[in-house]
Amino acid sequence: MPKSVVVHQIHFKREYPEYVAYRTPLFFCDDWLNLYLDHYRMHNDSDTCQENDGISCSDYRFVYMGAKGSWTPLHADVFRSYSWSANVCGKKKWLFLPPSQCHLVFDRGFKSCVYDIFDDASETNFPGFKKALWLECSQEQNEIIFVPSGWYHQVHNMEDTISINHNWFNAYNLSWVLDLLSRDYKEAKEYIEDIRDICDDFEGLCQRNLAANTGMNFSDFFIFLSRFFSANILQLYCQLREEGISVWSSSKMAKHLVFNLASIRRIALKLTSMDVVAGNHGFFLDLMETLDDPNFLKLFIDVGRAYGKIHEQQNCSCDTKKAWMVEFLDYSSHIRNPEDFVKFIDYSVAKLSASFCEENLLLSGLNNWPLFEDQ
Ligand SMILES: O=C(O)CCC(=O)C(=O)O
């Protein structure tokens, strides 16, 4: 097969925001990444920062177009997110390698990865390569492929093909994002270790390089988690205000929100014990400012919409939400480090419990986080 690595990738939603060409299948709507990026940038570089005008704001929703014979080299997805890919027309061949075998496609120093699994050089330069067991799958028109976190894959267009593709993460694969950040941070640090002594701000440079290579740094991740947690807990508060305590037995949406909160807390706790955030470089979030920000209100409303859609549940009006948000927010504080964030999480949960406390499973689940530890 003649090979041309030309697969054209378009940020479809960003470039044509008014054109509703498709709806995201319900299975894939629990998407924290694109929900967030609809209102915030993941990384704000003061050198290049522009207004968040909806065009400069990035997202991870693409259309791929490739002629027959074009292909996408071996890789694992950005942030170790999940991805789904729907063929509008054409046919693709996918080759997958599960995470347990991924070490086999790296060189001895674990620095570079095989580019093309059909290239003979792969066998010479990558000692474990021959042992890799590939899963092959062909995808026809109108079929959707789901790619789990951390699975390496190479993709070939067997015909002229157009596909729609999203990357996303949520409570279930959030730990993959943290693991990738930790690994890439270590690598970024090692790479410039020899100039540490002559660097005014070594940690700042590591974080800048991490953002450039990985798409976010620890500060971005931390701010993302804080905002997303706030939107989720407020959503839960609205549900409790609207439906009262019966929400725990009747609402799948409430359970889902609790699960999200538990997952964020688990990651925040991990952050407190990691030396990758030594000095807490660049960690700062003014909660009051965050909650006053119109972008936050939009995120909060969109979180409600998304989970309302997933669980086929009605949502209260934007005005009601706004009023309840103000009511909930007497915790005016700055979050300066992961410890502050965990305290804020525990404070908000305690507040929620105090307002609506009854003997019930979900509240104790929310308070006794380890209940969710193994999920
Ligand atoms: O369809 C393609 O060519 C690439 C898709 C892909 O690699 C992905 O979904 O991660």
Automatic annotation (TrEMBL):
For this protein, the record's Pfam families field holds: Cupin_8 (PF13621)
Using the record's annotation, list all stretches that form the JmjC domain.
13-185
Domain of life of the native organism: Eukaryota
User: What Gene3D superfamilies does the annotation carry?
Assistant: Cupin (2.60.120.650)
Similarity remark? Belongs to the JARID1 histone demethylase family.
Annotated protein name in UniProt: JmjC domain-containing protein
UniProt organism field: Populus trichocarpa
